[in-house]
Amino acid sequence: MYTPSDDTFLLADCIRQYYGGRALEIGVGSGLLLNILEKNFAYVAGSDIDLTALQHCKQQKTTSANVLLVCCDAGSAFGIGKFDLIVSNPPYLPNDDNDTRDPAVHGGPTGIEITVHFINSAMPLLAGDGKMLIVVSSFTNSSALDKVIVENKMHKKILKKKRLFYETLSIIELSL
Ligand SMILES: C[S@@+](CC[C@H](N)C(=O)[O-])C[C@H]1O[C@@H](n2cnc3c(N)ncnc32)[C@H](O)[C@@H]1O
């Protein structure tokens, strides 16, 4: 399971500014971000392909019983047009040289593939005035990211940036 890190905390700082009815996190990991969403939203759901992570969220009570946790790929279990806010800290490192992949950190052959998959999965789930917040690293292939944003006719706003010694992290807000 992914241990919360700089990327988690940067996204957490942004999530605290959002309030509303319904929120979804894709790739919940330890549940730290769900816990913040719960304070600001009436209904909160989360997904992860890692059942152990979801069990951790329940057993450690990082989330209350009101949060719907689903073991599924991205947003595949959820209905269209429902969420005011969707957040995600996707795995974004390129796969290892021998193309082995830890789903908590590796985002595909170039690193961007899972981010693009999460955005494509999330967009139909957003309410008309909904927003998606997503972590992007300077490791990310920005042209592939820009392409999916144009294809989905979305607007992009950079909310926060943090420079680390090995990469720069950004939180971007996507809206329809
Ligand atoms: C970088 S971790 C982020 C965890 C947590 N949200 C945080 O910020 O600390 C990425 C998470 O996405 C999950 N994940 C990877 N591929 C997924 C997929 N196709 N569908 C849903 N979750 C996925 C991983 O299991 C992992 O928990």
Write the layout of secondary structure elements.
Elements: H1 6-15, E1 20-26, H2 32-40, E2 41-48, H3 51-59, E3 68-71, E4 83-88, H4 113-122, E5 126-137, H5 142-151, E6 155-163, E7 168-175
Parallel strand pairs: 1-2, 1-4, 2-3, 4-5
Antiparallel strand pairs: 5-7, 6-7
Helix pairs in contact: 1-2, 4-5
Structure description:
This protein has 176 residues and is α/β, with parallel strands linked by helices. It has five helices and seven strands. The chain has helices at residues 6-15, 32-40, 51-59, 113-122, 142-151, and strands at residues 20-26, 41-48, 68-71, 83-88, 126-137, 155-163, 168-175. S-adenosylmethionine binds next to α2 and β2. S-adenosylmethionine (SAM) is lined by residues 2, 4, 8, 26-30, 32-33, 47-50, 53, 73-74, 89-91, 103-105, 114.
Q: Summarize this, please?
A:
This protein has 176 residues and is α/β, with parallel strands linked by helices.
